[in-house]
Design the sequence.
């Protein structure tokens, strides 16, 4: 289950939080359990959370799974696409007086039809913690639950990205233009990543990187095969003082230029940014006579270095 929309994996953000540049404006998580998880992440890796803090992890995950059940009960989120268990849940909810999923836990034995439908829905989606509570059995959180709790805690900490495209340009021209070389399967030695802009705003800065990864159209027997790489954007931002910055959001916008919103503002005295790529998504599609394709994540260690002005 994934209910967060983080710009980078939670592990990347946790690492950045431990070396965060001064001036950050982090939010305060709303619940005590999220605050416990957020505090634990200072010295505990996400995969270790379930073992080190099973109680808070289980409660955070259960709350997220109950919210997902609430949404599913409304029927507004394409129940037909969720399979027969989702459609059954919507029908049962329509005949029930219960409108909040938590009441199924607080009033065991009531609304047996909705209770059975909710249990089938939770089991079909692998929501172990919720399914256990509906059966009256307390499940211990697993490593994946710890990862989800970390994502939810990180999402609760991060400030919102600044709107707009304004700010002061601080990118200095460099001999290579802040470029990175081709991926392993690239057709030639030309660069395909170029930093176009670094603009400092009130509470952070924006980094625009133009990506032009290779695309090949090859004849394959009696058909054509399209091979392409799609850039996933930056995964880490570090300055020459050793500080790291939070990647709050990315916007691919379909233009070839990916905008990244970073927080906080650049540290005083920082003159160089190291921008680490998050990798690529590789696709191979056979176009004719019958469409078929595969997709895989391609992890490529690439780093762009850019100089900053005043």
Sequence:
């Amino acid at each position: 289950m994934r209910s967060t929309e983080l710009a980078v994996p939670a592990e990347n953000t946790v690492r950045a939080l431990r070396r965060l540049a001064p001036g950050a404006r982090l939010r305060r998580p709303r619940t005590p359990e999220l605050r416990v998880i957020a505090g634990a992440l200072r010295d505990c890796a996400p995969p270790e959370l379930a073992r080190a803090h099973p109680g808070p992890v289980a409660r955070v995950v259960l709350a997220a799974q109950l919210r997902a059940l609430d949404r599913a009960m409304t029927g507004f989120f394409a129940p037909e696409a969720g399979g027969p268990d989702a459609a059954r849940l919507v029908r049962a909810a329509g005949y029930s007086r219960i409108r909040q999923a938590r009441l199924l836990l607080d009033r065991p034995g009531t609304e047996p039809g909705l209770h059975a439908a909710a249990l089938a829905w939770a089991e079909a989606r692998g929501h172990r913690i919720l399914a256990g509570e509906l059966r009256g059995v307390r499940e211990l959180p697993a490593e994946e639950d710890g990862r989800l709790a970390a994502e939810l805690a990180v999402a609760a900490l991060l400030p919102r990205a600044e709107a707009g495209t304004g700010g002061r340009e601080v990118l200095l021209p460099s001999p290579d233009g802040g470029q990175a070389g081709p991926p392993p399967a690239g057709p030639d030695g030309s660069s395909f990543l170029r930093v176009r802009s670094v603009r400092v705003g009130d509470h952070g800065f924006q980094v625009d990187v133009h990506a032009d990864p290779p695309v090949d159209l090859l004849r394959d027997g009696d058909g054509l095969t399209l091979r392409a790489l799609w850039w996933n954007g930056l995964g880490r931002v570090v300055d020459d003082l050793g500080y790291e910055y939070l990647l709050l959001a990315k916007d691919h916008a379909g233009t070839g230029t990916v905008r990244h919103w970073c927080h906080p503002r650049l540290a005083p005295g920082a003159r160089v940014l190291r921008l680490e790529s998050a990798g690529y998504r590789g696709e191979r599609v056979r176009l004719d006579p019958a469409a078929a394709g595969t997709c895989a994540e391609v992890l490529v260690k690439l780093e762009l270095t850019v100089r900053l002005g005043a």
